[in-house]
Amino acid sequence: MPESKEDLIKGVGHAQAGHDVVMSSLAAREAALEKGYVEYLRLVGNDTFVDVARKTDAACNDQPWRTLSRLAERHGAPRILQLWTKGPRAALARGGELLARLRRRGAAILCQLTVTGYGPTIEPLVPWPVDWEGIDRLIEFLGTPEAVLWRFDPVIPGVADLGTLRTLAAGFASRGVVRAVYNWIEVGWEVVRRRLGPLERQLDTSLDRNVFSRLIEAVGQDCGVAFSILAEGDGLAGDLTLSTRGAWQYEWLLRVGPGFPSRGFLPAAFRPGCMCAPSFDVGLEGQFDGCHRCLYCFAP
């Protein structure tokens, strides 16, 4: 039976009420995020290292930019801004003006750029084919390819292809991006196992990760790209190149541009395994539907 006009009106009202609850929850989470930033400032003082954003890609979502803008207005520009993205063109379209404004206020800007070449079956909303023009725009915006760290992340056993990796490595090396990190997929997360269902036939859990890791590093070396692994260290062979300081070595950071903070800015490891320096993420987790919807993502 068709719904009456009154039923339709009630339905719209319920939907709006639900939307208001979601927005209220988002506002509350953003307020809590700012409270956390104040605590972070007490820890690091002026040596602020802000991620935009580890928990959700700022190419897809305005929330990290909105939060960053508010924090910078109230607490000053960060010393370091690190953009995390799989979509450089879209990220710059959303936040490039803000990044440029904060750079004029003294912020140094880095980027951890994830490119895997897996395609839309695995990364539904990631630019495909690989957006090299967008990557060129990002490098031009940053002013130097040395400000870009390429992430081949995650490595999916049975899916990751060394031929594709070689093509990507050659493309990055030709642009002067010669530092990269890789990491293996987190299959221990229940949500990841559930999302990986369509790839069940391709997955090869018997693959020797140390052997394949050596092959990744060898491909990089052939192409002029220095790979290092981001991992907690369990079961890793001693001859693999373990990344330190969250993938950025201090001597490398000095080359990004003038005015980089003193060596003391990078204190002891924040996470013992991956050696990340203390940083603050302006993104909120749990935004899978508003991101790239990658099958390997462990965001709820």
Task: Please tell me about this protein's structure.
- This protein is α/β, with parallel strands linked by helices and 300 residues long.
- The protein has a single domain, classed as pyruvate-formate lyase- activating enzyme (Alpha-Beta Horseshoe), CATH 3.80.30.
- Helix content is 40%, strand content 12%.
- It contains 8 helices and 7 strands; from the N terminus they run H-E-H-E-H-E-H-E-H-E-H-H-E-H-E.
- A 7-stranded parallel beta sheet has the order 6-5-4-3-2-1-7, with helices on one face.
- Helix 5 links the parallel strand 4 (148-155) and strand 5.
- The longest helix has 40 residues, at 5-44.
- The chain is globular and about 50 Å long.
- Mean pLDDT is 83; it is low at 1-22 and 267-272.
Helix- and strand-based class?
alpha/beta
List low-confidence stretches: 1-22, 267-272
CATH topology: pyruvate-formate lyase- activating enzyme
The largest sheet, given as strand count, sense and whether it forms a barrel, is: 7 strands, parallel
- Strand fraction equals 5-15%
**Outline, from the CA principal axes?**
globular
Number of domains: 1
What's the CATH architecture?
A: Alpha-Beta Horseshoe
Give the strand tally. Answer: 7
The average pLDDT score comes to 83
Question: Radius of gyration, rounded?
Answer: 21 Å
Strand order of the largest sheet: 6-5-4-3-2-1-7
